[in-house]
Amino acid sequence: SQTIHQWPATLVQPVGSPLSLECTVEGTSNPNLYWYRQAAGRGLQLLFYSVGIGQISSEVPQNLSASRPQDRQFILSSKKLLLSDSGFYLCAWNIAGGGDTQYFGPGTRLTVL
Amino acid sequence: KQEVTQIPAALSVPEGENLVLNCSFTDSAIYNLQWFRQDPGKGLTSLLLIQSSQREQTSGRLNASLDKSSGRSTLYIAASQPGDSATYLCAVRSGTYKYIFGTGTRLKVLA
Predict the structure, then answer these.
(1) Torsion of CA B74, A37, B47, B28, to 10 degrees
(2) Confidence (pLDDT) at A6
(3) Backbone angles phi, psi at A56, to 5 degrees
(4) Would you write out chain A's pLDDT as a tens digit for each of its 113 residues?
(5) Where would I find the beta strands (DSSP E) of chain A?
(6) Confidence label for B96 from pLDDT (cuts 50, 70 and 90)
(7) At A83, is the secondary structure helix, strand, or coil?
(8) Would the pLDDT of B32 be above 60?
(9) Which of chain B's residues have a Cβ under 8 Å away from the Cβ of A44?
(10) Is residue B60 within 8 angstroms of chain A, CB to CB?
């Protein structure tokens, strides 16, 4: 069966510090991968998606970037965090080319102080 | 631009009651609609997926319907239990990789 992991689970970082969040999927090959942010009282906002290694699409301009160095690894980064980057970050995957159900990881709670 | 709305934002019901959660979307050109459950501080768990050509899907005590022409979906929960307490989110797939989420309905089932 497929499993999706995210780490760290929680993170407190000062403004201006760098960020690296990691997501890995097990039990499937060539998944579509997604990064979402969930701010308090708001819906999930799609940040990035990837259909393959090295292929990243950004949905909104922001202070963040994403990379996919391996088939089942998706990384969310920032060089300098802003207060507005605080939120709950969720990674998700679905089957490439037809599977529509999205499966989510446990999330990372990021607090920028 | 697709927008997804869920009303009410919060709901409290006594145990055993049947209830309906609502989801509406502004653009009927969708591929599918998915209902999720989110427990506090956790990720999302997929409950039901309805393709645009389908009218409803059922899983156990859950039944989701889709009326694409009117831009509405409902999630029906039968015989609610305290364990059903969570936030319920709907999401529409309106592009190949584009999923738009509602802000959710926070459900509390009282024992």
Answers:
(1) 40
(2) 97
(3) -125, 135
(4) 789 999 999 999 999 999 999 999 999 889 999 999 998 777 899 999 999 999 999 887 688 999 999 999 999 999 999 999 999 999 999 987 656 789 999 999 999 99
(5) 3-7, 10-13, 19-26, 32-38, 44-52, 55-58, 65-70, 73-78, 87-94, 103-104, 108-112
(6) confident
(7) helix
(8) yes
(9) 44, 89, 91, 101
(10) no
Higher pLDDT, B23 or A101: B23
Contacts for A39-45: CB closer than 8 Å, 24+ residues apart:
A39/A86, A39/A87, A39/A88, A40/A87, A41/B103, A42/B103, A43/B4, A43/B89, A43/B100, A43/B101, A43/B102, A43/B103, A43/B104, A44/A90, A44/B44, A44/B89, A44/B91, A44/B101, A45/B101
Chain B residues whose CB is inside 8 A of the A105 CB are: 43
B97 exposed, middle or buried (CB, 10 Å; 0-12, 13-18, 19+)? middle
Instruction: Find the chain A residues whose C-beta atoms sit closer than 8 A to any C-beta of B.
Output: 6, 32, 34, 36, 41-46, 49, 51, 57, 59, 88, 90, 92, 100-107, 109
Nearest CA in chain B to A87: B41
Question: What Å distances lie between residue B6 and A64, A92, B84, CA to CA?
Answer: 28, 22, 18
